[in-house]
Structures are given as structure tokens and as C-alpha cells.
Amino acid sequence: MKHTEEFKQQVRDYVKDNPTLLKKDITKKFKISHETLKRYTDPEFEKYFNERYSKYHKNRVLNDPEYKKSFNKHCQNSHKRKMANNPVYRDKFNKHVKDRYHLRMKNEKGYKEKISKRWLKNHNHKMETDPEYKANWKASLKIQTNARREKKADLNENYTPADLEYTMALFKHKCAYCDSQKDLCIDHWRPLSKGYALTRTNAVVLCNSCNASKGAKLPEDHFDKEFVGLIEAKLDK
Ligand SMILES: [Zn+2]
Fold first, then answer.
1. How far apart are CA 78 and CA 71, in angstroms?
2. For a 10 Å CB count at each end of the chain, is N or C smaller?
3. Structural domain boundaries of the chain?
4. Which of 16-20, 123-127, 149-153, 158-162 has the lowest mean pLDDT?
5. Which residues surround ligand 1, an ion (CB under 5 A)?
6. What is the C-alpha separation between 234 and 203, in angstroms, rounded?
7. DSSP-assigned letter for residue 192
8. Cα distance between the two ends of the chain
9. Rounded to two decimals, what is the model's pTM?
10. Can you list the alpha helix ranges (DSSP code H) found in 5-42?
11. Is 11:28 a contact under the CB 8 Å cutoff?
């Protein structure tokens, strides 16, 4: 694979080990151009090359719609490929999306409205175009809430005001995730929908926006590993 760090290092090592070889023999062996060889072995030239290329690239993106389109396609494909094959990239990207959502929910005026407007627009569109959605959307919402009520009764949830005091103190009256002190609520750490009752060892303090974004997901499907470990340690104390 060309242009990976390993490949670059391989070329550099080869150049170092064979100081008497001619440039053209090296380029021939690795099937690279003279310019590429220079980039790999001369950091100053690499810097100059990258600057020149980035200028050229920006200019073309601005002025050449075809180029812009193919560049965007290239980025999308590379993103898709990395999401499918590279777990480190995937975790990082998912965390980035989540963090951005939280930040915007907290700080950006009108973001909440924007989100609900988008939902409404999508909803209206589906109501017009998707008969199945039209027939079922209310029922599916209702089923969710009924199931919630039934689950609560089944599990005989009995979380008392004293338990609430305990949980609040345990989390120092702050959102466990973002430290916000506003709009706090007690939430199921492991979700009710998957059969976990609200107890002292399953109750966390979250702000409304962190709670909303977690939804009914299992903690490990939403938060990063380190945070999950931290909270579990706290709860099992
Ligand atoms: Zn929060």
C-alpha cells in the first residue's frame, strides 16, 4: 500500500541502507515517482508539497463542481469503509456525534426546536407518503407507554423519597455525565424496557438532555467504556 507510514518508512530505510544506489533505481524498485521519493525523504519538501496540494485542492473544490462531487463521494466512501472496518474510528466518530448533540442541546439557542421541527417534518412527510406509518404511528407510541407502565407494575418498583435523597447525594446533585446542575432527573441506569427496576443500585442522576439522548439503551451501547466502569463502581458501593 502506497502512502502508508509503513511504506514510507520502508522506502526511507532502504535509502539509508543503500546510500550508493541511484535515485532512479529506488523509484523503479518501489514504483514511485521522483517527486514522491523526495516527499518521503525530505520533510521540508513534504511540507511544501502538502501546502501546495491543499491550496490546489481547495481551489478546485471551490471552482470545479465535478471535482467537488467526486471528492465528497470519496470522503463518504472512506467514512463508510472505516465505520465498517475500524472499531477505533467507529467509537471515536460515534462519541463525536453524541458530544456534539449534547453540546448543541445545552448551548445552542433554538437547537431543541430545530430537532423537533425536523422530527415533525419527517413525520408529516411519512404521514403523506407511507400508509403503514400513518396507520401505526400512534399505536406504536401508545404501545411504548403502556409497556412502560406494565413493566413498572410487574417489577414492583418501589423507589422511595429516601432512595432519591441517597442517589442525589451519591452523584453530588450533578448530572453524572456532563456535570450540569440544571434539569436533573433520576434515571434507570439499566433500562426499564429491558427489565431493570429502579433501585439504589440502578439509579443515576442525569440532566434532561443526557437522559433524552441515552433513551432506553443499555449504558454500554451509549456511553464509553470508561464512563460505564466509573458509574458501575459507584453504584455497587
Ligand atoms: Zn447531562
1. 11
2. N
3. 5-85, 89-237
4. 149-153
5. 175, 177-178, 180, 207, 210
6. 11
7. G
8. 51
9. 0.42
10. 5-17, 23-30, 34-41
11. no
